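Notes from the pairing session

We agreed to fold both candidates in a single pass and log them together. This is the raw record for the first candidate, unedited. Please don't reformat it; downstream parsing expects exactly this layout.

Candidate A
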Amino acid sequence: MAFEKYTRMLVDSGAKRALVIRPGSVVTSHWVRLKCQYGCSGYGRKLTCPPYSPTPKQTRKLLDGYKRAILVVYSGQWRGENQKTSGRERKKRRQMRRVIAEMERALFLDGYYKAFALGAGPCNFCKECDVAGTCKHPELARPAMEACGIDVFATLRRAGVKIGVVRTYHSPCTFASLILIE
Protein backbone atom coordinates (compact mmCIF):
# COMPACT_ATOMS: atom_id res chain seq x y z
CA MET A 1 0.00 0.00 0.00
CA ALA A 2 1.39 3.37 -1.06
CA PHE A 3 0.29 5.20 2.09
CA GLU A 4 1.00 2.53 4.71
CA LYS A 5 3.83 4.63 6.16
CA TYR A 6 1.37 7.44 6.93
CA THR A 7 -1.41 5.24 8.30
CA ARG A 8 1.10 3.55 10.61
CA MET A 9 2.38 6.96 11.79
CA LEU A 10 -1.19 8.06 12.57
CA VAL A 11 -1.91 4.92 14.60
CA ASP A 12 1.42 5.29 16.40
CA SER A 13 0.34 8.87 17.24
CA GLY A 14 -2.87 7.75 18.96
CA ALA A 15 -5.41 7.01 16.23
CA LYS A 16 -7.49 3.88 16.65
CA ARG A 17 -7.47 3.31 12.87
CA ALA A 18 -6.28 5.06 9.73
CA LEU A 19 -7.81 3.94 6.45
CA VAL A 20 -6.99 4.94 2.90
CA ILE A 21 -10.26 5.73 1.12
CA ARG A 22 -11.51 7.30 -2.09
CA PRO A 23 -12.75 10.86 -1.49
CA GLY A 24 -15.72 10.01 -3.72
CA SER A 25 -16.97 7.74 -0.92
CA VAL A 26 -17.18 10.68 1.50
CA VAL A 27 -20.84 11.61 2.01
CA THR A 28 -21.80 15.30 2.02
CA SER A 29 -25.20 16.79 2.70
CA HIS A 30 -26.66 20.22 3.41
CA TRP A 31 -28.50 19.06 6.57
CA VAL A 32 -25.19 18.42 8.37
CA ARG A 33 -24.40 22.13 8.80
CA LEU A 34 -27.85 22.65 10.29
CA LYS A 35 -26.78 20.32 13.12
CA CYS A 36 -23.88 22.73 13.70
CA GLN A 37 -26.12 25.78 13.58
CA TYR A 38 -28.79 24.27 15.81
CA GLY A 39 -26.97 22.21 18.36
CA CYS A 40 -23.29 23.09 18.58
CA SER A 41 -21.77 25.83 20.71
CA GLY A 42 -19.00 26.36 18.11
CA TYR A 43 -21.34 27.76 15.48
CA GLY A 44 -20.32 31.33 14.65
CA ARG A 45 -17.73 31.27 17.43
CA LYS A 46 -14.86 29.45 15.70
CA LEU A 47 -13.18 30.22 12.37
CA THR A 48 -13.13 26.46 11.69
CA CYS A 49 -16.93 26.21 12.07
CA PRO A 50 -19.90 27.51 10.08
CA PRO A 51 -20.54 30.06 8.79
CA TYR A 52 -16.76 30.44 8.21
CA SER A 53 -16.08 26.87 7.03
CA PRO A 54 -16.62 25.67 3.44
CA THR A 55 -20.22 24.89 2.47
CA PRO A 56 -21.26 21.32 1.56
CA LYS A 57 -21.22 22.34 -2.13
CA GLN A 58 -17.67 23.72 -1.84
CA THR A 59 -16.63 20.62 0.10
CA ARG A 60 -18.01 18.25 -2.54
CA LYS A 61 -16.10 20.18 -5.19
CA LEU A 62 -12.95 19.98 -3.06
CA LEU A 63 -13.34 16.22 -2.51
CA ASP A 64 -13.90 15.65 -6.23
CA GLY A 65 -10.44 17.12 -6.89
CA TYR A 66 -8.73 14.27 -5.00
CA LYS A 67 -8.15 10.56 -5.68
CA ARG A 68 -7.04 9.40 -2.22
CA ALA A 69 -7.58 10.35 1.41
CA ILE A 70 -6.85 8.95 4.84
CA LEU A 71 -9.78 8.60 7.22
CA VAL A 72 -8.43 8.87 10.76
CA VAL A 73 -10.55 7.33 13.53
CA TYR A 74 -9.95 7.78 17.23
CA SER A 75 -11.83 7.29 20.48
CA GLY A 76 -12.73 9.85 23.06
CA GLN A 77 -15.47 11.08 25.31
CA TRP A 78 -17.92 13.81 24.41
CA ARG A 79 -19.06 16.48 26.82
CA GLY A 80 -21.95 18.80 26.09
CA GLU A 81 -21.81 22.57 26.49
CA ASN A 82 -22.83 22.33 30.15
CA GLN A 83 -20.55 19.39 30.90
CA LYS A 84 -16.97 19.95 31.94
CA THR A 85 -14.49 18.23 29.64
CA SER A 86 -11.55 16.77 31.53
CA GLY A 87 -8.12 18.26 30.96
CA ARG A 88 -6.91 14.89 29.74
CA GLU A 89 -9.70 14.65 27.14
CA ARG A 90 -9.15 18.27 26.00
CA LYS A 91 -5.43 17.56 25.65
CA LYS A 92 -6.14 14.37 23.67
CA ARG A 93 -8.45 16.22 21.22
CA ARG A 94 -5.91 19.01 20.80
CA GLN A 95 -3.18 16.42 20.20
CA MET A 96 -5.22 14.66 17.49
CA ARG A 97 -5.83 18.04 15.78
CA ARG A 98 -2.09 18.67 15.95
CA VAL A 99 -1.33 15.19 14.55
CA ILE A 100 -3.53 15.62 11.48
CA ALA A 101 -2.03 19.06 10.75
CA GLU A 102 1.47 17.62 11.12
CA MET A 103 0.56 14.68 8.87
CA GLU A 104 -0.77 17.12 6.26
CA ARG A 105 2.61 18.87 6.38
CA ALA A 106 4.57 15.60 6.22
CA LEU A 107 2.59 14.54 3.14
CA PHE A 108 3.21 17.94 1.55
CA LEU A 109 6.96 17.70 2.21
CA ASP A 110 6.97 14.18 0.72
CA GLY A 111 5.63 15.61 -2.55
CA TYR A 112 1.87 15.39 -2.01
CA TYR A 113 1.49 19.13 -2.46
CA LYS A 114 -2.33 19.03 -2.45
CA ALA A 115 -2.53 17.50 1.05
CA PHE A 116 -5.22 19.11 3.22
CA ALA A 117 -6.66 17.98 6.54
CA LEU A 118 -10.14 18.29 8.04
CA GLY A 119 -10.57 17.96 11.80
CA ALA A 120 -13.22 16.68 14.18
CA GLY A 121 -15.42 19.07 16.12
CA PRO A 122 -14.73 22.68 17.01
CA CYS A 123 -11.10 23.79 17.17
CA ASN A 124 -9.77 24.03 20.72
CA PHE A 125 -6.37 25.69 20.32
CA CYS A 126 -7.61 29.02 21.67
CA LYS A 127 -9.88 29.47 24.66
CA GLU A 128 -11.83 32.03 22.64
CA CYS A 129 -11.55 32.40 18.86
CA ASP A 130 -11.26 35.92 17.44
CA VAL A 131 -13.72 35.50 14.58
CA ALA A 132 -13.34 39.18 13.66
CA GLY A 133 -9.59 38.77 13.24
CA THR A 134 -7.23 36.17 11.86
CA CYS A 135 -6.50 32.72 13.21
CA LYS A 136 -3.70 32.62 15.77
CA HIS A 137 -2.85 29.02 14.81
CA PRO A 138 -3.25 28.73 11.01
CA GLU A 139 -0.60 26.00 10.85
CA LEU A 140 -2.76 23.79 13.11
CA ALA A 141 -6.41 24.88 12.82
CA ARG A 142 -8.46 23.03 10.22
CA PRO A 143 -12.20 23.04 9.59
CA ALA A 144 -14.17 20.19 11.09
CA MET A 145 -15.52 17.53 8.72
CA GLU A 146 -19.08 18.10 9.93
CA ALA A 147 -18.65 21.89 9.69
CA CYS A 148 -17.98 21.39 5.97
CA GLY A 149 -21.15 19.34 5.48
CA ILE A 150 -19.60 15.87 5.70
CA ASP A 151 -21.94 13.21 7.07
CA VAL A 152 -19.38 11.57 9.35
CA PHE A 153 -21.68 8.69 10.34
CA ALA A 154 -22.40 7.67 6.73
CA THR A 155 -18.77 8.16 5.69
CA LEU A 156 -17.44 5.98 8.52
CA ARG A 157 -20.04 3.29 7.85
CA ARG A 158 -19.13 3.23 4.14
CA ALA A 159 -15.51 2.69 5.20
CA GLY A 160 -16.55 -0.28 7.39
CA VAL A 161 -16.16 1.52 10.73
CA LYS A 162 -18.84 0.75 13.30
CA ILE A 163 -20.30 3.90 14.81
CA GLY A 164 -23.41 4.51 16.84
CA VAL A 165 -25.18 7.36 18.53
CA VAL A 166 -23.62 8.37 21.84
CA ARG A 167 -26.44 8.31 24.36
CA THR A 168 -24.78 9.89 27.41
CA TYR A 169 -22.04 12.42 28.01
CA HIS A 170 -20.03 9.75 29.80
CA SER A 171 -20.13 7.18 26.99
CA PRO A 172 -17.10 6.66 24.78
CA CYS A 173 -17.49 7.97 21.26
CA THR A 174 -15.75 7.91 17.92
CA PHE A 175 -14.10 10.97 16.38
CA ALA A 176 -12.90 11.13 12.79
CA SER A 177 -10.65 13.37 10.75
CA LEU A 178 -9.89 13.28 7.06
CA ILE A 179 -6.63 14.02 5.29
CA LEU A 180 -6.99 14.60 1.56
CA ILE A 181 -3.84 13.52 -0.26
CA GLU A 182 -3.78 13.58 -4.05
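Candidate B (folded immediately after A)
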Amino acid sequence: MNKFIHEEGRIWLPDEKGDMVAEVLFPTVAANTVEITHTFVDDSLRGQGVAGKIMQEAADEIRSKGLKAQLTCTYAVAWFDRHKDYKDMVV
Protein backbone atom coordinates (compact mmCIF):
# COMPACT_ATOMS: atom_id res chain seq x y z
CA MET A 1 0.00 0.00 0.00
CA ASN A 2 1.18 3.50 -0.77
CA LYS A 3 1.86 6.07 1.92
CA PHE A 4 -0.69 8.59 3.08
CA ILE A 5 -0.18 12.13 1.79
CA HIS A 6 -0.68 14.92 4.33
CA GLU A 7 -2.02 18.28 3.18
CA GLU A 8 -3.59 21.13 5.12
CA GLY A 9 -6.91 19.78 6.39
CA ARG A 10 -6.67 16.60 4.33
CA ILE A 11 -4.95 13.23 4.37
CA TRP A 12 -5.30 11.01 1.36
CA LEU A 13 -4.03 7.80 -0.17
CA PRO A 14 -3.05 7.51 -3.84
CA ASP A 15 -3.19 4.30 -5.83
CA GLU A 16 -0.33 3.22 -8.09
CA LYS A 17 -1.54 5.68 -10.77
CA GLY A 18 -1.66 8.57 -8.29
CA ASP A 19 -5.45 8.68 -8.11
CA MET A 20 -7.08 9.26 -4.72
CA VAL A 21 -8.54 6.04 -3.29
CA ALA A 22 -9.03 7.12 0.34
CA GLU A 23 -9.23 10.42 2.19
CA VAL A 24 -10.25 12.18 5.34
CA LEU A 25 -11.09 15.90 5.37
CA PHE A 26 -10.68 18.09 8.45
CA PRO A 27 -10.82 21.82 7.64
CA THR A 28 -10.07 24.42 10.28
CA VAL A 29 -13.26 25.93 11.72
CA ALA A 30 -11.88 27.98 14.62
CA ALA A 31 -8.52 29.07 16.03
CA ASN A 32 -7.75 25.71 17.64
CA THR A 33 -10.43 23.48 16.12
CA VAL A 34 -10.85 21.40 12.99
CA GLU A 35 -14.00 19.64 11.84
CA ILE A 36 -13.70 16.08 10.58
CA THR A 37 -16.28 16.29 7.83
CA HIS A 38 -15.68 13.36 5.50
CA THR A 39 -14.02 9.97 5.25
CA PHE A 40 -13.88 8.07 1.97
CA VAL A 41 -12.44 4.69 1.01
CA ASP A 42 -12.73 3.31 -2.50
CA ASP A 43 -14.71 0.08 -2.85
CA SER A 44 -11.52 -1.71 -3.95
CA LEU A 45 -10.02 -1.14 -0.47
CA ARG A 46 -13.07 -1.82 1.70
CA GLY A 47 -12.64 -4.36 4.46
CA GLN A 48 -8.88 -3.87 4.69
CA GLY A 49 -8.81 -1.44 7.61
CA VAL A 50 -7.91 1.55 5.45
CA ALA A 51 -10.58 3.82 6.97
CA GLY A 52 -9.27 3.10 10.46
CA LYS A 53 -5.68 3.72 9.40
CA ILE A 54 -6.45 7.03 7.73
CA MET A 55 -8.54 8.17 10.72
CA GLN A 56 -5.64 7.24 13.02
CA GLU A 57 -3.33 9.37 10.84
CA ALA A 58 -5.73 12.29 11.09
CA ALA A 59 -6.22 11.95 14.85
CA ASP A 60 -2.47 11.78 15.44
CA GLU A 61 -1.85 14.83 13.24
CA ILE A 62 -4.62 16.86 14.86
CA ARG A 63 -3.36 15.95 18.33
CA SER A 64 0.29 16.71 17.44
CA LYS A 65 -0.77 20.23 16.44
CA GLY A 66 -2.58 20.71 19.76
CA LEU A 67 -5.95 21.07 18.07
CA LYS A 68 -9.43 19.88 18.98
CA ALA A 69 -11.83 18.14 16.61
CA GLN A 70 -15.52 18.54 15.94
CA LEU A 71 -17.00 15.39 14.45
CA THR A 72 -19.64 15.64 11.75
CA CYS A 73 -18.48 12.61 9.75
CA THR A 74 -20.40 9.55 10.94
CA TYR A 75 -17.34 7.31 10.54
CA ALA A 76 -15.28 9.71 12.69
CA VAL A 77 -17.94 9.65 15.41
CA ALA A 78 -17.85 5.84 15.47
CA TRP A 79 -14.02 5.72 15.35
CA PHE A 80 -13.61 8.12 18.28
CA ASP A 81 -16.24 6.16 20.24
CA ARG A 82 -14.09 3.04 19.82
CA HIS A 83 -10.80 4.83 20.62
CA LYS A 84 -11.40 6.31 24.07
CA ASP A 85 -7.76 7.44 24.38
CA TYR A 86 -8.55 10.13 21.79
CA LYS A 87 -11.80 11.39 23.38
CA ASP A 88 -9.95 14.30 25.02
CA MET A 89 -9.52 15.94 21.61
CA VAL A 90 -13.22 15.94 20.75
CA VAL A 91 -15.28 19.08 21.34
